[in-house]
Amino acid sequence: MTRPIMIKRKTNNSLSLKNMIVRKERWIRSFINTKIGLIPVIANTLTHYDTYGTINARIGINRHNYSIIPGLYASGKPDANSPVLVTANYKLTFDKVRSSLQGISAWILLLDTKGVNVWCAAGKGTFGTKELIKQIEVTKIGELINHKSLILPQLGAPGVSGYEVTKKTGLSIHYGPVYAKDIPAYINRSMVKTDEEKIIHFTTIDRLVLTPIEIKSALVSSIIAGIIFFIAHSIASQSFTLKFLNDYFSFLGAIITGGFIFPLILPILPFRSFALKGALLGLFYSVILAFFNKSSLGNILFGFCIYIPVISFMALNFTGATTFTSISGVKKEIKIATPLYLLSVITGIIIKIIILIRSAL
Amino acid sequence: MNLQYIKNVATLKLDAGKCTGCAICTDVCPRQVLKMNERKVEIINLNNCIECGACSKNCPFSALTVESGVGCAAAIYFGILNNTAPSCDCSKSGCC
């Protein structure tokens, strides 16, 4: 068995080279020797390994462990005049940044956001002032560059106090574009940002890539609902029965409506409130369900009482994934909607119990 | 398409007396809420504000204040149930 060659490091760089070699990170092309130590040079082209990893992360496999070692990396052949781009150590984020830097020589400084994207990590404070100062000190990046400035993603600004970083480290902070694809143009313009590059979007694609996770977490609750339906129906008919399947599939349909249809048609749903948007979609769903199921009046009422709040709740929960909602707004919605949800669901459960009791008699 | 959320809830406030017109806030706002007006900044579209806190965090003169936080319903429920500030514990739920 051959052991990986240990490379003696001159300084206390937070990058664990040994770890990286052992893990055989496929996106490391080589290493360059600098006065602050050996720096890994990254590949700018994504391979099918990266695509495979992205798909896995989007459907929730290994999603919370899709991080890379924080610290300093190189793109191309950077020197003392090359820009320094700061970003998060979430692999999906890093892939976007490095693939946008085709043919550009730059330093890339990864903060330890525990594998969370810049925007969410900034909101939580892990993409923050403290962590940035720490990485600047650990990597000694300041010694590598003449221009003494860093480029941060604009969406990192909620977590980083630029003037405090400057005070502590002497490095000035530029907030670059929101999207990694705009980085080359921004650098070519000598760190001048257009108004368009400042704006955060929320396109159909942006919303669609989020749906697998939404549905996955909702599926767990559908299994619980299925078990409850099964027990209730079995008790009512005093034997194990498949009668619960109708209720189960109706519930499943509601979850797909809330987790997939809602994000998809979000912009065309009326109302600003997510709870109301979701309730309207829930109403549609309940009506369609009643029409196709040719249900009894009791079951139609049950559908209205359960599926409207379920879809409305899923819609309200989607606020956390959007880029245009505010905490004050969500708090206001929760305050109004929660009692209504509870009232509606309890009414629905009572109706179902009555239906089951009557069918048992 | 410019998506808009509930009106008249954003807690963003500007103390024009403290503003020196450095314009860093207009550089970090992702929703075009702020605009430079001659020598001071101005809130031009309060309903667009998503309370991300980028402007207040980067204002060296504390001219802007906003109650920012995790705007995710699950996080707020979690906060209410545990009597803490809304926290988005992504290691458990599927948020962000």
Structure description:
The complex is a heterodimer of chains A (about 350) and B (about 100). Chain A is built from 13 helices and 7 strands. Chain A has about 350 residues and is of the alpha/beta class. Chain A has 2 domains: about 15-200, 3-Layer(aba) Sandwich (Rossmann fold), CATH 3.40.50; about 205-360, no CATH class. In chain A, strand 4, helix 3 (about 90-100) and strand 5 (about 105-110) form a beta-alpha-beta unit. Chain A starts with 16 loop residues before the first helix and ends with a helix. Chain B is α+β, with helices and mostly antiparallel strands and about 100 residues long. Chain B contains 3 helices and 4 strands. Chain B is elongated and about 45 Å long. At the A-B interface, helix 4, helix 9, helix 12 and helix 13 of A face helix 1, helix 2 and helix 3 of B.
What spatial order of strands do you see in the largest sheet of chain A? 1-2-3-5-4
CATH class of the largest domain in chain B: Alpha Beta
Tell me the total number of β-strands of chain A.
Answer: 7
| N/C terminus separation of chain B | 22 Å
Q: Can you tag this structure with a few keywords?
A:
heterodimer; A: 361 residues; alpha/beta; Rossmann fold; 2 domains; 5-stranded mixed beta sheet; elongated; B: 96 residues; alpha+beta; Alpha-Beta Plaits; two-stranded antiparallel sheet; 4 strands; 21% helix
Brief summary:
With 361 residues, chain A is of the alpha/beta class.
Question: How would the blueprint of this fold be written?
Answer:
The complex is a heterodimer of chains A (361) and B (96).
Chain A: H1 17-23, E1 28-34, E2 37-42, H2 48-59, E3 71-75, E4 84-88, H3 91-100, E5 106-111, H4 118-124, H5 129-139, E6 149-152, H6 162-169, E7 172-175, H7 183-188, H8 204-208, H9 211-237, H10 244-265, H11 274-293, H12 297-317, H13 327-360
Parallel strand pairs in A: 2-3, 4-5, 6-7
Antiparallel strand pairs in A: 1-2, 3-5
Helix pairs in contact in A: 5-6, 9-10, 9-13, 10-11, 10-12, 11-12, 12-13
Chain B: E1 13-14, H1 24-28, E2 34-37, E3 40-43, H2 54-58, E4 64-65, H3 73-82
Antiparallel strand pairs in B: 1-4, 2-3
